[in-house]
């Protein structure tokens, strides 16, 4: 039947936390993939514009039982209602232990999709109607449709009010581009011993530095260099890492970003948060032909920022002198 | 020769930014992987404790040329010096365009590793010496070793001083557990049309909510439910997503976390940041037999938090009543 | 029915090359995941030791059509024969374009699994028999079983010798395109038992073969087929895998690449490096309309290469004859 779809896959260490419970987020992602596939497939069963089903709403979803690494998740989706412009998909998730044969329902979810034209992504196209097994089913679907429509509307109004009152920082200041991310250390981030690979930490540091640089100059940016990095303290599996970056210095063609890595051992809370690594990344801004672009100068606020800028400038001049000396020696 | 090693792999869309430049972080990660492999292999060529090479320091690294999707990165590593307790690895990275045949050196890096015993991760074992092609080489290596040792020491002292002056928030407050992450939308997060899959957004939301919950109760936590989520605005490829979570309510056995998703179109900055999604996640805390544990009550500060707590409580009671009604209807 | 299983997922950018063709390796990995799930499930339908189905052999597999990013791959697996200690699984792969609704069969594969006890990974347990729809089916299965058993034995004997020595390359020679990559086995590459999934190994083999092919003909290349692969030895978590490929034969429109997988247990260095798998991949070169292009002939150097070329030619002619015979039989 065109209006049914099943997806399944085995749960791997990266899908779960360190005690083996599959993350709710992994399950939600599979649910939405199934919904998107069945919705897109259905809305393209007619002639006219080709389209893509875009997620508009997920109803309240309960996680009835934990799922574990090694189990197979079966995600089955069915279209249960269609209005003129939206599709209701119901999705069930079943966890199967292929060794013991035990099965249990872990989730039942309801998603609403809206078909967006591929020619014009701002256009919503019409949904081909489905057939219902009984008039009661259609009627019940219509009720669910009306109820969610109302809630979406209310939510839109409510959201309109509380819209981000974040005081917008002035462009090109340190505050304006500073960024941080948290990352829950997963199995693939670690050595066999349960310590984070230095390379994983460096990749996250570069990611944050890149976002700071892009926020500052709004162009395509690339890493030009990384200053020496010392790894004083190991980071253990199960930690949450906070990686923060702030711009310290700009020259005509480059930006220096200071990056901090703090580790928080969450469960072993008595150990407390500690600074694991710090480093300076230098970025440059490129145009479409990969040629360097000028960088907007950093606007400094306060003595601290001024001091850090001067230190960055010293590092910049020192590296420049070193590069020149290396060049001369080679000639 | 045991002390040489080469790793290579093709660069994929997820390794790069939207214009196709491979992230510096991807390259740093490969460099460190090669260093870790050659270092671990070398330190296990003797009898005695089995060990793992842990990264202690990376020297300043320049990115000489951009690398692109579809190119093959060749990372070759060589052990160039060994002291009693550390190993110096030099790594070269070459980008090869397998279609045109063009090759260019993109990086030269120097990494220092320390072998950690697998029996006791706090014990550093001795490094088997390498043979040098000339006494000059050994002498030069020794100089590099002394220089970096000094810098590491200085850095340790400096870091000890400036250690996180972050004022520690009081436990069990909203501020104490609140968390946020930024995520640069990559190709695999998106549909063919360049919009973020709803499932990807939900997975990030669950990740942040989980970290908030774990920070609050320091135990193994799992998602119990997600309230209805509305997706009012699409998120486009190349955006930076900020996902923030804060605890709003605790009952005896559950925690409610409010999660916000803000999208920042970086390059098309005129569009400005906007709130894309908000939702409430409910988490429970589990013991080692996967049985629910009591949750420490949330400490409220100020009227705003009190108001949000009451709203959370109303949602909690409403859901509880609904579950009971559903149960009765089924009997 | 317990002996059927279907897996499906949408193809993402990282599953494909830069022109959007899904890698043969991605498909091989999904095929093996389906086979492993159905095999493990079946072998646990009896009382006694719990077990895991370990891949022992994959029969020659053809790639009938290219698959593209955005398409949904449907992988369905069925158990078609059981001997005392092994399970034959047949897997079909279908590519569905959910926008146009077009579907095409892209692969038909046959895999052999052996159930390994979870209590003792060196013990092979007995396989519960399946029921056959007719005695003819059982008889045909038995013939396939005997044939592959013989081939596995022969292959075990043949495997030994060789490894490559690199010097500077003349275009279109074997040395010019030969390639190798190294991969540190991570948690998500492994089963719950800490052994590498056969599918992960095949994906890496296809990646190397693809690089060899692209280096040789500098065009868009796709996997056309894989010869039977035998998995003689398991690979453990924490190993470093070296995957090397070299071209052995070219016809007008195809290239044959031999791929070796060597496992190096790093920490348990006394165990030494060993050859885990070898296989032959056939690639074709495509133009922008996905039509086959002529392949530059391989320049042979030395008797060894000449001999391998002749052997490759024999395999090529044999497969061609077999395809013709199959076609005639179907008419």
Radius of gyration of chain A: 26 Å
Q: Classify the beta-strand content of chain A into a percent band.
A: 25-35%
Number of DSSP-assigned strands of chain A: 13
> Helical percent range of chain A?
25-40%
Order of helices and strands of chain A: EHEEEEEHHEHEEEEEEH
* Quaternary organization: homotrimer
Morphology of chain A: globular
Largest interface: A-B, 94 and 92 residues
Sequence stretches where pLDDT stays below 50 over 5 or more residues of chain A: 161-166
Subcellular location (chains A, B, C): Cytoplasm
GO molecular function, one term (chains A, B, C): carboxylic ester hydrolase activity
GO cellular component, one term (chains A, B, C): cytoplasm
Keywords (chains A, B, C): Cytoplasm, Hydrolase, Lipid metabolism, Repeat, Serine esterase
Describe the 3D structure.
With about 325 residues, chain A is an alpha+beta fold. In chain A, about 30% of the residues lie in helices and about 30% in strands. Chain A has 5 helices and 13 strands. In chain A, the strands form 2 sheets. In chain A, strands 1, 2, 3, 4, 5 and 6 form a 6-stranded antiparallel sheet that branches. In chain A, strands 7, 8, 10, 11, 12 and 13 form a 6-stranded antiparallel sheet that branches. Chain A is globular, with a radius of gyration of 26 Å. Chain A starts with a strand and ends with a helix. The model of chain A is unreliable at about 160-165 (pLDDT under 50). Chains in contact: A-B, A-C, B-C. Chains A and B meet through helix 1, strand 2, strand 3, helix 2 and strand 7 of A and helix 1, strand 2, strand 3, helix 2 and strand 7 of B. Strand 3 (about 60-65) of chain A pairs antiparallel with strand 8 (about 220-225) of chain B. Chains A, B, C: InterPro entries: Cytosol_ACT, HOTDOG_ACOT, HotDog_dom_sf, Thioestr_dom. Chains A, B, C: GO terms for molecular function: carboxylic ester hydrolase activity; fatty acyl-CoA hydrolase activity. Chains A, B, C: Pfam families: 4HBT. Chains A, B, C: Its main location: cytoplasm. Chains A, B, C: Keywords: Cytoplasm, Hydrolase, Lipid metabolism, Repeat, Serine esterase.
